[in-house]
Amino acid sequence: MFIQTETTPNPATLKFLPGETVLGSGTADFPAAEQAAGSPLARRIFAVPGVAGVFLGSDFVTVTKTDAAAWDQIKPSILGAIMDHYQSGDAVMSQAQPAGGGHADHDGPDAEIVNQIKELLDTRVRPAVAQDGGDITFHGFDRGVVYLHMQGACAGCPSSTLTLKMGIENLLRHYIPEVVEVRPVA
């Protein structure tokens, strides 16, 4: 098995491409080891000292390290954990915890605007941020403000504010006049 790695705009995060399907659809975000109980793959990766977060996409695994860890020291162990997982035949996610990664539900008077926002996110934004090892999902819309949840490499990325303000906000405001601002949620 050959696992490729790619850098991301977030220096604390690397993208691992195992050459096999990770999650067929959706995503799974584990910002802490305690939340990884539903994923045998994420648990294996969290067993590596220095791992702070794991994000699973369709065909990639994004790993965020702690500030104290150095990539040249922990990368071989992460590669080994991913390889061990695929050789074990274990499922990526347990049956008890299906993958998520969808947008938050929204109904009410702004439902048509929210559907337009979700459509633009799905067609223009999410494919681009997945290339960088992350995901951005709709969280809410209130009085012209769009709230987005950033995951994987996007969470904590130094350029995420610029991406939100100059990229996503401008895109949404261009196509949807009711949008006045975009903000991240924790």
From TrEMBL:
Gene3D superfamilies the UniProt entry points to: Fe-S cluster assembly (FSCA), Scaffold protein Nfu/NifU, N-terminal domain
Domain Scaffold protein Nfu/NifU N-terminal: 3-89
Organism: Paracoccus solventivorans
Family per record: Belongs to the NifU family.
Domain of life: Bacteria
Gene Ontology biological-process entries: iron-sulfur cluster assembly
Protein known as: Fe-S cluster biogenesis protein NfuA, 4Fe-4S-binding domain
Signal peptide: none
Segments forming a coiled coil: none
Database matches in SMART domains: Nfu_N (SM00932)
GO molecular function: iron ion binding; iron-sulfur cluster binding
